[in-house]
Structures
1.
Amino acid sequence: MTNFNEIPNRRNNSNSIKWQFYPKDVLPMWVADMEFPAPKPILRALHKAVDHGVLGYEMPSRALQETAASRMDKLYRWKVKPEAVVAVTGIVNGFSVAVRIACTPKKGVLMQTPVYNEFHEVKNNIGIPLLEAPLIKHVTGNILSYEIDWDIFEKQVKKAGMFLLCNPHNPLGIIFSRKDLLKMAELCIRNNVLIVSDEIHSELIMGDNKFSPLAKLSAEIAKHTITLISPSKTFNVAGLFCGFAIITDKELRERFEKEVNHLRMHVGSLGLIAAQAAFSGACDGWLKELLRYLTDNRDFLVEYVTEYMPQVRLTIPDATYLCWLDFTQTKIVGSPYEFFLKNAKVAASEGKIFGESGEGHIRLNFGTSRKLLEQGLEQMRKALH
Ligand SMILES: Cc1ncc(COP(=O)(O)O)c(C=O)c1O
């Protein structure tokens, strides 16, 4: 059994962005990595490589492609050929490459806001329009839920070269339904729009929720889709920058690979080793325990906010260790992110970086020990009152 209550100190002797960016008296609950060490099989594989001593240039092996492909079969009964799996230097790089093959100054990138801040940055990549299809917010009691505005989606998809889907969704924690996925895909295909499905959070599933990749829905959808997966969030190895693009259509894959080669993007050797161990199945026991702990953290967070800060609205994420909180009904004037940084010494993610509709909101990372989560919430509660 892993004791997730015990976490290493990342404040000292580390280059952690999360822990080094703010002054020492601030509790960081922002960057999307967790406070837990990676599972033992990954650490053992990395130790072995370090002990070997030679850390030269390496390339993704056939065995690694096979391991990633069999993980898709094992988890979802999704059969992909090993050659459909292309290693990338992280998921942000993966979708940034895809933008280069699918978008032009006239054909933009479509996304469902509020959404992961790096999605917004792709417009600067080659100077292309960013097309937003904001999700519609609903409130029941203090619980937030979101749904697709189909009128806007249909209008925007006509102007797009690529649809960048975030499923499960960061920061809202949504797993989109099969019905919604089919409709989104159908509209994209009809309008000749490439689908890039960022599924980096797909193994961080809370409670009894289920996930299935978009491209598994039909061969026709798979043909128009680049699926992006990675061990980085699930197994907390984000700093090793190794992810995968699964591209079943040969021609599309060749166009993607050509661009990857132009940019000379090579995955680091330790990233490849970690991915092999992560997707091999050896860490699945650890993952099961992690998901139980994270689900309890999520429930603790929702109950705490509901009881002690009832005017605050929040999501109950289906997936991810990220929660989205709405402070528009509280007495906070201006940005809640700035308010809590100053008055609670808690650093959350500023809602506005996820899109305009994120104003008055923050994203809180609960991938930490229960003790630190409670401490952060306590500090926020005191500041709010
Ligand atoms: C939806 C989403 N995609 C991609 C990333 C980052 O991926 P990478 O570090 O592999 O570039 C994140 C990290 O938070 C994310 O939430």
2.
Amino acid sequence: MIKLQHVSKTFSVGKNKIEALKDVSVEVNRGEIFGVIGYSGAGKSTLIRCVNLLERPTSGKVFVDGVDIQSLNKKDLLKLRRKIGMIFQGYNLLETANVYDNVAIPLKLEGISGDEIKARTEKYLEIVGLKDRSKAYPSQLSGGQKQRVAIARALAHEPEVLLSDEATSALDPNTTDSILELLLKVNRELGITIFLITHELDVIQRICDRVAVMDKGRIVETGSVVDVFTRPTEAMTKQFVHDEARFRIPPTIFKDLIATGKLVNLTFIGESAKDPALATMAKRYDVLPSIIAGGIDQLKDQSIGNLLVHIKGDQGKVDEAIHFLKSRQIVVEEVSE
Ligand SMILES: Nc1ncnc2c1ncn2[C@@H]1O[C@H](COP(=O)(O)OP(=O)(O)OP(=O)(O)O)[C@@H](O)[C@H]1O
Ligand SMILES: [Mg+2]
């Protein structure tokens, strides 16, 4: 559906050159929710803006539905942009127009007939749950409601793809959840492909099928959300996972645990959660496991359990026990610092 091939983008600011994108290749399949995660300045917005040519790559190609979009003339590019909706962190609503008109006015500018405008505006305000607020002005709405208007406005053009540039970054956790639910519904019920960028791991975990991790203009890792976040291979991905998803243990307690045994982080995915591996291990190797911390992350289609376990016992037995855990369907990571 969307394919970026070897895309680079260099900005010139006075004499300085900023390489915002360096040889980025990424492919988003029709019907999926694809997320790009990275810290501030990684080049995420620049990347997503290349998809509708709000930003033109310095080199490389961008294909949408197999069409090399940099070869399109102005008219065809406008047509193509109608297939691609976009939402932003800052909503970009018309402050002087009410909710209904925020959705209807862009349709009017596109030359759509009056009846169709009414039908679509009502339909999409209903879908985002704001039909009863159509007379309200943006200043009378909460952040979450404003983002719902922006989503309705994007959907009213009946796009095939929705691009989202940090759409939930300005919202509190509960409102973020409700907007993510709405994006899931848009993807499932309307079949719209979603390409989003974010710096929040939670957004990726909750709704994305696949993810790319970006660092300093490059994509360093790509894969299914489950794979990338349970078996991160790149330092940047590990940093995201450890920053946000793992347990923090007070240093004095940590020191004590390391001195008296081994600490392992266990990740259980899907069926492996039902495997009584810890009990079996304790029995078979005569070691004493204690659970120090635990939690469950809900991904789009499955849950992942995390346990931080302290294993005490004869040194050789403890090593054998850890080896045993590694032989099960569990991701085992020894924690030593
Ligand atoms: N129009 C521009 N002119 C000059 N430099 C730019 C321009 N747009 C982006 N940059 C630079 O390109 C780099 C990547 O910026 P970009 O906005 O894509 O990052 P980002 O990952 O979206 O960051 P954030 O999470 O803060 O939004 C930054 O160093 C930024 O200063
Ligand atoms: Mg950005």
